[in-house]
Amino acid sequence: MKEERFSSEQLQILYDILGLIIPSSDEYLKPSASIILEDSASLAEEFILLANSALHKIQELSILSLNNDWGKLENEEKIGVINLFQKKENRLFTNFCLCIINAYYTNALVLKAINTKSIPPFPEGNQLKEFDYLMLENVFLKGEIYRKTE
Amino acid sequence: MTPEVDVLIIGAGASGAAAAWNLSNLNLKIVCLEQGEHTNPANYPSTKIGWELFKNNEYHVSPNVRKLKSDYPINDSSSPISIANYNAVGGSTILYSGHFPRFHPSDFKVKSLDGVADDWPLDYNELEPFYDLNDKMTGVSGLSGDPAYPPIEIYQQAIPLGKLGETMGNGFNKLGWHWWPSYSAIITREIQGRGKCINLGPCNMGCPQGAKSSVDVTYWPIALKNGVELRTQSRVREITVNDKGLATGAIYYNAKGEECIQKAKIVIIACNGVGTPRLLLNSKSKLFPNGLANRSGLVGQNLMLHPLGYVEGTFDEMLDSNIGPHGCCIQSQEFYETNAERGFVRGYTMQILRGPGPVETATSGLLRKEIQIGQQHHEQFDSKLGRTIGMGIIVEDLPETHNNVTLDPELTDTNGIPAPKVNYTLSDNSKKMLAHGLSKGVEVMEAAGAKKTLKFGPVKNTGWHLMGTAKMGNDPNNSVVNKWGNSHDVSNLFIVDSSIFVTSGGVNPASTLQALSLYITNHIIKNRNNLVVP
Which of A9, B9, B213, B224 is the 20 to 30 Å CA partner of B474? Predict the structure, then answer.
């Protein structure tokens, strides 16, 4: 993580937030969005800017709405604060989520988990089902549908 | 100033490359000036794990967003459709999907058949040998026997349809509508050292495999081998003329920003339906105060853009729709030819598109409130990725003079050359056609088994097809060039790009504009000794 951008306390909060925005799933074998923090080099500048703004706003909302620091909140309370953040700062929240999605769905582990087939740099390519030419029989038998001009 | 050459070609995209190749078989000195650079396929986004993110910046379809050194700004604020292009050796073929259908014979006879616009001064039969030649040079895959066309010889086996194509084919069959595997400028068998398609998907950001037939891998390698000189990072400001009204060459800026002059006996413009009128309107002189080749006043007029409708269906079944060539699967021309009962003239093509990748699936899902954050995210995401099918409705818009390209009074490019301004509105005919296409698109999606559909149009960032702004015709008062792409006003000036289209057809224009380029340059080859040159 780019330590100079986030304090260790902020980083812990960020792990929490990302884990709530996209939690891990045993059913779908997907990690939580906090996985994107493991690959610091790939994080976009835009993410870091938005994350800083989101952290500030979420900490502020924790105090204002529950009179407590984020770190001392129960899980349900944290979800409530994030919902409040979404409601009060929708544009910032949406842009932050889009940035998270960009990083999450370009992460190699996530792409493997969701089975996107051949992952860049595309070593092998993909197999696609050929089609049964007989499917076109009726189209062909209907005859020409273009207008002749002579 | 460099020595005079026989032929100067301006623009190294789809039409310029075909012209350069065709003329390179002669012993002529040919120079092509291109404002962009060579692309390096090894650097295409699709070689990188974050490939989807590049479409938001340096591989965005709009030059106004990309803002690369090779780009020029386009004021398209007065159009519901933003102009899309790419400036490089290969032009917009670097980013196109490779969907490569031809015009229909009726497209050349719209006045005679439907009483609108004008007939072309040539017909399908005259162009057919050049369609064939272009298909062969390009490497077009598909399937012969399509009842929507006269017989077409196909050189490469069709791209596999996948479960997606089969699903849609069944939907069309249920309704008894026409459909056929797409004509695709994507090779399925290796030729000329190019790798065959391996069904990756992100064709629209360059094909590192070389399977997609962008002209940097088709025409240019041969043209360069034959001796054509291609100067990149060379942006043309104006075409110069002598006191006899003949083109003498061009003034351009090289990579260092230095003003250069290239003299030529013949000048060929291949800058597309926005770049070409911009160049002609910027080429004012005493003899041509309203812009070069513009005595008809039609340079820049009659812009056609193909308003695009989009229909999407979501299916229960996993279709692996996110893999395979994005724009090439199947097409339907059930509603291509005019039918008065529909309430509009002319028609459209339905182009089946593969589904989006994971980033686009998640971001569009979030914005449409179909995929939420929190615990439900994964289930909702899983219900979309690989299970959605897209459809483009390519609407034939008709030529109208209020749709045009002019010069912006203030906006300029980095060389100080006035930028183009696009003014465009959809006609009632286009609106009715678009609404019809969207409705029929939903109908076939549902017939194919879609559990959910959405539709909208015209889609904003889809102004790839730039046509009509230097139309061809027999009457010098009602056209800019004749049937040979030769300016009525300047006898040694030719235009070979889609600006010379009389009407737009209801299909992607690349195949037709390249066939026209071969047709025109063939005429130049046959008649070069009779041309009046400086």
Answer: B9
